[in-house]
Amino acid sequence: MILAIARRAAIFVVSGAVASVAVFLFMAVLPGDPAQVALGINATPELIARTRAEFGTDRPLATQYFDWIGGVLTGDFGRSYVTRDLIGPQLADRLGVTLWLVGTAMVIALVIAVPLGSFAAVRHRKLSGTVISGVSQLGVAVPAFLAGILLVQVFAVQWRLLPSGGWTPPDQDFGGFLRGLTLPALALGLVQGAVLTRYVRSAVLDTLREDYLRTARAKGLRPGQALVRHGLRNAAVPVVTVLGLQLTTLLIGAVVVERVFVLPGLGSMLLDSVAARDLLTVQGIVLVLVIAALLVNFLVDLLYTVIDPRLRRS
């Protein structure tokens, strides 16, 4: 097991290194000169040359990459081309907001998907199971930003129960933090909950057809009891795979939802940096998102060995 963990950790490190090169090269080949963008169209050639030297963009690409990645490994993402502020502290603050949003949304999705998906599988020949399956299919087709707009219209505009946007740090006002987080987390969590419900239903249905569950029911257990005692652990293996993919989807979906609810997360920072053509900041944000996706896949691989003892023995 230790060897398997070490092998997966090595794959994670190599994948992260390759991803950093890909992100850097992608940003390097984009048209436009950061110095020209920062100074404006009326800047003199001498001033542009000095600014390029200040930014370090006049050096060879290999030198630029190793200086950048060396700083990233120590937490130094450089300074913004536009504002000249340090990027690292901004990334840390914005990442905290995004993690709160994504983590809460995933909890909401699991609270919805696991019981409803299991119930729909056990009752798949009944009207109640069919209704849950149909509603989840409808939920899959709803974009997260549309769900957010509808939630704002109902809970913020009509009923005035929750704020329509804004962010309050939890250490300043925890009640205000919860109120501000509720609608965006629901917008993400309800949509992802519908997606996960479909996969949970499919996984549980496959498990219900296994011989060992038929044996458990033959010994007197009801279908629900047999599923809880013997089936959910095996059904969790394919669901964990989808869960990892959905976590990555939540990170991407948070970009739009943060804009809808005016949250100061990574998504809003990314859109603002793209609009300002602040390529170094965009480069750092994209790298953080890619590493987060790789880390999720790494953790999912480790979780397999916890859920399925057969993988530990192999």
From TrEMBL:
Coiled coil: none annotated. The keyword ATP-binding does not apply. GO terms for molecular function: dipeptide transmembrane transporter activity. SUPFAM superfamilies: MetI-like (SSF161098). Keywords: Cell membrane, Membrane, Transmembrane, Transmembrane helix, Transport. Gene3D superfamilies: MetI-like. The chain crosses the membrane at residues 9-30, 99-122, 134-157, 177-200, 235-262, 282-304. This is ABC transporter permease. It comes from Kibdelosporangium phytohabitans.
